[in-house]
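Batch job 17 of 40 flagged for manual review because the log was empty.
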Amino acid sequence: MIALINSFSLYAVSPPWHESFRDAVFGKNVTIDDAENLSQCCAVSGMAYAMANGLDVDKFAKNALALNSRNATAQYLSAARWVFAPAPLNNLKKGIEMMMDILVKGDMEKDDRFNVNSAIGYAYVQQKKYAEARPWLLKSLEIYPSNKIAAELLEKK
């Protein structure tokens, strides 16, 4: 399965056939790993690819949530689209609300806590609400003290 996921990640940037490849390989049994891989492809590919495939991340995350409603990673992937999508496609207020819900409704591991805290901090920075961002970014840095992105966001004023 890992080889297939890696193949999907490598070839997902070829829009003419990637969707049929994904469906043939994964069918309806798409896992949270598949959602994470597609999310990463959207992050590093061009805007057209992200627009065409980004909604599938949420669909795959919802499949995972149907199996385990407390899956923090799936909750994060569903909420992240509202935080990290470019304007005017984002909805920072909704993203922050969804991220905060994960803190209560999610079974969180170390990486989940970091991702949620840093996403909330990032969303506040995007709104130029630096005082509100600060505690979330500090929580992120408690988890991964050497994270340069969280540190750089914390320096913004």
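Reviewer: the log was empty due to a logging misconfiguration, but the result itself is present. The two ends are 45 Å apart (CA to CA). Unflagging and moving on to job 18.
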